[in-house]
Specification:
heterodimer; A: alpha+beta; four-stranded mixed β-sheet; about 40% helix; globular; B: about 180 residues; Rossmann fold; five-stranded mixed β-sheet
């Protein structure tokens, strides 16, 4: 008789996810499904609306990546109007987006990732949060985190007028520029944010790399995956979060393809499983081959670690140093240890801060040529950015009146659906053995597998529930015999 | 006493917009007041919300809630001392609101006390489908609801305490809260 363990819903995860672990008679893991039991249909909602409204509407899909959707949507809308966006507008958008990245990565690292390492994977759930981190590492950390986030947010406010649910990007540019006064306010905050990225890297060295057990868990634990990698790169194959081409390298580090946004349908296809509403993207040319790794796989990750794995270099010098340290420590590219996602976010934050510094020194950034009003409707647009949690694609068409006739979104987390499913199964199989009763620590280590991806299902399935507590149900002989609840 | 009035929700997820609509109506009815700021559309939680409430002595949140067997159009008043889950106050991408507030207080931020964070949560019917219209059942209840909520907001601003013990666990999926009734509102 198969036993079933349900982890439902998953904590520290935007949207509703559910893990079901099926045990055989001996108590070993037979299978594990990472399920998304929701479906909404956002694309249909926007059909028939003026295409220029979409960048404002899509920010309401989710409160976690609103700027990512806004940027991808704006680029797709630019395409529908003939791509007349001036270079200054792209710079300003990119500047905003790098500040947004820092804001988001700080939250993930300190509120979601750090508790597992600073407090320990098997620590009391009540203390496995940012308060536990502050308790262990010191009160000044909490103050520094709050201050850094506030500064990243303030930069977004200054540039875009608001930090969430932007209405800033318009067809052909942005609604406002960056004045010299604005820039003078931004500069000191950027300097502090850069320092904070260095502080965060040092904290990672001290707390994680300084603990042999954690390094062993990252490098040799069950959290590895042999699939391909995807990420947006610039003309030098350095990571770019706002613009560029999408590069895919195989599990051994060889380039498979590099494609422009308008070519995405030639490269990516989506598979459907009956047990999840969320689709499973794969590389179209290789065909769907199931949940397999290595030489036969057609699956890929699109994550912070993937972005570094596909890049030949970083775009900025200090980020390059941080990148080199990481890949030297972890044995070179491509790194397959998914817990290294947390380190990759810190490396990305360095590039974000240095990119902001670059724009602060750019004499053109305070110019006033930040918008060209489009004069033509060309009918189709593609926008790809790197959302913090993966490559985000928006593809729109509109009629001659500029009314939306179709919209297709492939969101960051969707790319990673199959890898999350697979690594979660692997960790469950590794940790839950015959005779070993799952406890909070083991279940948290299963959660760590997907938490590394920073998944967000509110837009992946287009749903927006509030957070709910973790429920764990162990089912034996078809009947529940044990239940946990915890509020994280 | 400086108060922040927040309309919480998503304007395109059917009844999830009710907090936003109520905040707009309440803000218009209150008119300009030096002691009250209104943010009529907010859908953030966790650390982001912490940034928003910093510097205020009191916060009034108008939000939606879904409880098992709840009657759409009824509403609940409670404060952060017994805060569980309205639909939007938490953001699981970062810390939950209670943790964020505890963090803020630990580092000395000027934040309202838990008993000065008032949540007026409206029981809703549909927060699943995309729509800019309320569900029929909530739409028909809205005018009366708006008047009641506005009166309650005024009571909060006048410093009235919560008059009855709110449900301890009015959370999604929990058993029906025994204190929930028309009289409780």
């Amino acid at each position: 008789m198969t036993r079933r363990i349900s982890i439902d819903p998953i904590t520290r995860l935007e949207g509703h996810g559910k893990i079901e672990i099926f045990l055989d008679d001996d108590g070993a893991v037979e299978d594990c499904h990472f399920q998304i039991p929701e479906l909404r249909g956002f694309e249909r909602f926007v059909e028939g609306r003026p295409i220029e409204e979409l960048p404002r509407i899509v920010t309401r899909i989710c409160g976690v990546c609103p700027a990512s959707h806004h940027m991808a949507s704006a680029k797709a809308v630019d395409g529908c109007f003939g791509n007349e966006c001036p270079e200054l507008a792209h710079k300003l958008r990119d500047m905003y987006y790098n500040a947004h990245y820092i804001h988001s990565h700080i939250a993930h690292f300190y509120a979601l990732a750090a508790p597992d390492f600073v407090c320990g994977p098997d620590s009391e759930p009540a203390m496995r949060n940012i308060l536990g981190v502050v308790d262990k590492v010191g009160l000044e950390i909490g103050g520094a985190v709050i201050k850094a986030r506030a500064m990243a947010q303030e930069i977004q406010m200054i540039l875009g007028g608001r930090f969430t649910h932007l209405v800033w990007c318009l067809p052909g540019g942005v609604a406002k520029g960056c004045s010299k006064e604005d820039l003078e306010k931004i500069k000191p905050m950027v300097a502090e944010l850069y320092d904070f990225t260095q502080f965060s890297l040092q904290l990672f060295r001290d707390v994680v790399l300084g603990n042999e057990g954690y390094v062993d868990l990252i490098v040799n634990g069950p959290y590895t995956l042999d699939v391909h990698n995807m990420g947006l790169v610039d003309e030098n194959n350095a990571p770019n979060f706002y613009d560029g081409k999408v590069r895919v390298v195989d599990y051994e580090g060889n380039e498979i393809v590099k494609y422009a946004p308008r070519e995405y349908m030639n490269v990516v296809a989506e598979h459907v499983e009956p047990w999840s509403y969320l689709k499973f993207p794969y590389l179209k040319e290789r065909g769907w081959k199931g949940f397999v790794e290595g030489i036969d796989t057609s699956l890929y990750c699109a994550t912070p670690l993937s972005r570094l794995n596909v890049a030949d270099r970083m775009a900025t010098p200090k980020a390059q140093e941080a990148h080199d340290e990481m890949f030297t420590t972890l044995g070179g590219k491509p790194v397959k240890a998914q817990l290294a996602q947390h380190w990759a976010r810190l490396v990305e934050m360095v590039q974000n801060a240095e990119t902001l510094q670059k724009y602060c020194d750019d004499p053109e950034i305070t110019g006033d040529g930040y918008r060209v009003v489009p004069e033509q409707i060309t009918g189709e647009g593609f926008g790809i950015v790197e959302a913090m949690r993966g490559t985000l694609t928006h593809h729109y068409t509109c009629d001659e009146n500029g009314m939306c006739t179709s919209a297709n979104l492939i969101v960051g987390t969707t790319n990673n659906n199959a890898p999350i499913h697979m690594v979660t199964r692997r960790v469950a199989q590794h940790l839950i053995k015959p005779g070993v009763e799952p406890d909070q620590g083991i279940l948290n280590m299963v959660e760590m597998a997907f938490r590394a991806f920073d998944p967000c299902y509110s837009c992946a399935t287009h749903s927006l529930p509030g957070e709910m507590p973790l429920e764990v149900q162990i089912v034996k002989g078809g009947k529940p015999y044990r239940e946990f609840r915890r509020n994280c | 006493m400086k108060t922040l009035l927040i309309g919480m929700g998503n304007p395109i997820i059917t009844d999830d917009a009710v907090g936003i609509m109520l905040a707009r109506d309440a803000g218009a009815a209150l008119g300009p007041r030096p002691d009250v700021d209104v943010i009529d559309e907010c859908s953030i939680g966790g650390l982001n919300l912490l940034d928003l409430v910093t510097g205020y002595d009191r916060v009034v949140v108008l939000d939606s809630i879904k409880t098992r067997d709840g009657v759409p159009g009824t509403w609940y008043r409670f404060d952060a001392t017994d805060l569980r889950e309205t639909m939007n106050l938490r953001n699981v991408h970062d810390a939950n609101f209670a943790t964020a507030m505890a963090l803020g207080r630990s580092v000395g931020m000027h934040l309202p006390d838990d008993n000065a964070i008032h949540i007026l949560a409206v029981e809703i019917d549909d927060n699943v489908n995309f729509s800019e219209e309320l569900s029929p059942v909530l739409a028909s209840a809205y005018d009366e609801l708006r008047d009641e909520i506005l009166a309650e907001v005024c009571r909060v601003l006048d410093g009235d305490p919560v008059r009855e013990t709110p449900p301890a666990a009015a959370a999604v999926g929990d058993e029906p809260a025994t204190a929930r009734s028309a009289t409780w509102r």
